[in-house]
């Protein structure tokens, strides 16, 4: 096929000369493995099955396209949390703007420091979960991140974290790439809330590898906010132990291109995972949620809940997959993707997949797409509610189903308010 | 098949039994011992010429085949389906085989038909009366029909043995004959429509079929005509190491209606055999076509040895406004199935429906589904797919629903359920949904609550539980089809009616 060579050429161009060297033996080995994987799979290509709806060209161009800076005076999300703030500017950690790294129950270390130590717990995670997540679906941009990332944190949680950890990704430059890679380990019974917000860079590539040990709980809330021209490819790789819990929610309001991948693997019995998202997009907006959940343990529950509101020609994509391995009995898999198209120019593509090798399981998937329900509009307008307001009410009600997946009510309320603002602004 | 399968709670025992019955000894695995004439083994341009010459085709047909063959040589076999099988050696297959008796002269009466060929159809359960007609016995058409009449085109390896009720159909203006006859006798019609729904470049197996096809049926229903009887083609592979590559073309002109049934069986052998067919259906304004298949090719034995590779391209093009097509398939056979009967809903208000029951036992692998391409305004489609896997079988539903920007106010409803019997098999779902306008509504659900609301209301109102009502309605589709099948499918129909999807996995 004609595209094959192109994939490898693009991969080589991306690898370029900027690959970091040095560090502990395990760090060097992890980079080498990722490099070998990347060379073997090539860069993402439009003809790849999992890139058929999102053209990866702008993510794989050697030089990222410039993106105008976006200025806003609105309060940033997660300000109301009792938290440790870790600030990155253009993808580089800024200690001056950040809080002190000490918090009870959590060890926070710069990734570059961790990778210099010969003996470090991160050696069992860095690039390891990412490499596992490359099969059966290749994720070349994540491998590239493992090869090149120097920024990020190694976070180990030993008990209930006294405060949330908040990553704030600021952008000060109109051009440039940023790569951030976090490794997070929740020991048995640990509990952590981690938030992320901000664009990071004109083009961001992030990887988060999370190990959730038995009985541990990880809450992740992310706000990909109002930066109209930024592009981002994010990846979460996680492994879940017995009776553990993993909850991730992402709010996306605009941005030129967003590809959020989550790869979740159940290894211990009776665990739970939720991946949810609400997105509201305008115009030149493409939002892609690509989820892969592997059930390899008994009696685990997974939920995928994604809601997208699209207008002025925006595109929403959902590619979700539940794989139930042989023996993963009593699995309960739920997958929901719904899109509301506010006008005729917007698009929605979905591929809700199931692959099941165990007989005593319940997996359901639902996917719907359409405009605002006429009957509901009639009901509201006949009760004297103006047309526009009725439309907004129904649109927000539609998005709220995803917001319900957020455990923290304060955060859920804040996310809801941001969506209301989006509705009111009408354009962006 | 042994009975020690551990079945999870909630799965209906009657269903388990029915699926096991289907997976038990293949009833049509016998071989007819007759002298067969083959084209030389393998595939090259000369074979393409040979097939064309055998069918006494005009030059344009040969050119068409050669062009496809040249293209096919550079094509790559598709690998995206969730099926695994050893690489096919396309040079070790016979591309043309016919009973020697047929090679000399087409039989005109019962006496002239090779009795062994007749015996084969008798054994397959085609009613005697039809056999008589098949053999062209005079006066048979005046004999009182038992129940409904079904005209049959019987295909044996690469040739059509005969087509029944042709005269009666002719009176109604309906043309029903083998594609080979049609190319000779109504070339203008064939030329106008052949390859317009499934172009020669469509996919690897369709291109192969274009180069080497022989036999298959041709149907033309003229304007405003309701076909006076159901039409049916019965495909039988008999010769060893032989592929079957039939091509069917159905044209329903404005305001016409036809119901077409297709059945297929093959002998039980240790080697795999290839079946790569193409079915094209053209539906003009206000016309309706129902296409039903009972696919019962030899599925291989309980260890996965032998069986048919069934790689089929079927597509209906609703060209006119309010055109309607309904695909119904009962898939119980074949070692490997790769089949996606599709609907192009081009005309405004056109409708496409796809109902499928796929049952895979032992080591069978089925990757099947449909494509609904909505191009016209207010087009509607409905997909109901039931996949059942037992033993070590893998069953995949793969489907596409595409709403183009101009397909305003269109609707799709998809429901696909899978049932696993035992813990060694697999059930997979790969739906693609592409929506490019906002007035269309697409619903893809694995839940059972979205069957026709009125039917649901009717059942619920009479005190039926929701599950029960859905089972009744969904099975109702199947039963309606199963009961409409010709006599030779009575056995399968009876076995399948008992199936319910209680305890589905998703």
Main attributes of the structure:
heterodimer; A: 428 residues; 10-stranded mixed sheet; 9-stranded mixed sheet; B: 506 residues; alpha/beta; 13 helices
Q: What radius of gyration of chain A results from the CA coordinates?
A: 21 Å
Number of DSSP strands of chain A?
A: 19
What is the total number of structural domains of chain B? Answer: 1
The largest sheet of chain B has its strands arranged as: 4-3-7-9-12-14-17-20-22-24
Strand content of chain A: 35-45%
Name the chain pair whose interface involves the most residues: A-B, 37 and 39 residues
Share of helix among residues of chain A? 10-25%
Oligomer: heterodimer
Low-confidence stretches of chain B: 134-147, 447-451
What's the number of domains of chain A?
1
SS element count, helices of chain B: 13
Number of strands of chain B: 24
User: Mean pLDDT across all residues of chain A, rounded?
Assistant: 93
Principal-axes shape call of chain B:
globular
- Main sheet of chain A: which strands, in order across? 2-1-5-7-9-11-13-15-17-19
Residue ranges of chain A: pLDDT <50 for 5 or more in a row?
Answer: none
Describe the protein's architecture and organization.
- The complex is a heterodimer of chains A (428) and B (506).
- Chain A has 428 residues and is an alpha/beta fold.
- Chain A has one domain (2-371).
- Chain A has helices at 2-15, 25-41, 57-60, 111-114, 128-132, 140-148, 374-382, 387-403, 409-425; strands at 83-89, 92-93, 106-110, 153-157, 164-170, 177-186, 191-197, 203-212, 217-224, 231-240, 245-253, 257-266, 272-282, 286-295, 301-311, 315-324, 332-341, 347-356, 362-370.
- Chain A has a 10-stranded mixed β-sheet, covered by helices on one side. Chain A has a 9-stranded mixed β-sheet with strand order 3-4-6-8-10-12-14-16-18.
- In chain A, helix 1 runs antiparallel to helix 2, helix 7 (374-382) packs across helix 8 (387-403) and helix 8 (387-403) runs antiparallel to helix 9.
- The two termini of chain A are 41 Å apart.
- By secondary structure, chain B is α/β, with parallel strands linked by helices.
- Chain B has one domain.
- Chain B is 24% helix and 32% strand.
- Chain B has 13 helices and 24 strands.
- Chain B has helices at 13-23, 45-54, 59-72, 100-104, 115-124, 128-134, 166-171, 179-185, 187-193, 204-212, 453-461, 466-484, 490-497; strands at 36-38, 97-99, 150-156, 159-163, 175-178, 217-221, 230-236, 247-252, 257-265, 272-275, 278-283, 288-295, 307-318, 324-331, 336-339, 342-345, 351-360, 365-368, 371-374, 380-390, 394-403, 411-421, 426-435, 441-445.
- The radius of gyration of chain B is 22 Å and the shape is globular.
- The relative contact order of chain B is 0.12.
- Residues 134-147 and 447-451 of chain B have low confidence and may be disordered.
- Classes of the chains: A alpha/beta (428), B alpha/beta (506).
- The A-B interface holds A 1, 49, 326-327, 329, 333, 339, 341-344, 346-371 and B 7-9, 76, 80, 82, 405, 408, 418, 420-447, 505-506.
- Strand 18 (347-356) of chain A pairs antiparallel with strand 23 (426-435) of chain B.
